[in-house]
Write the structure tokens for this entry.
Amino acid sequence: MRMQKEEKIVVVLLFMALGSLAAAFWAFSPEESYTPASGDMGSGENSRSPLTTLDGRITSAENTRSGGNLILNLDSTAMPVFIPASSGAKELSAQLQKDARVRITGTINSYQGKDELKVSRKADVQLLEGWSIPGEDPNDG
């Protein structure tokens, strides 16, 4: 039982369509892990993990002594949240208040032997329960 020429063409076209769908899925799927730049991996202290989301109330917000970074502590976890200057730390520092309820998404990294949640972009910090960031419309989805 041999396949006809038309049947062979259909099989080849199906495989091509499957390959195109697989490539599109890979290219357009949301990023689920952080790929560090070539110089981003320091002395082995930065271990990357899939995205993690934390909800909680801000118990403290402190700017670092150098670098313009922000460190948040939440009531829901002992793990600090690290927001680098390149991820909007300055703007968020002015906008986030103690006791504000937030949802924060980032990767869990190890810094000086302790875990912390590292935020990669400002949009990964969301205010919840009617809190609003000045200058942003809470109805924008």
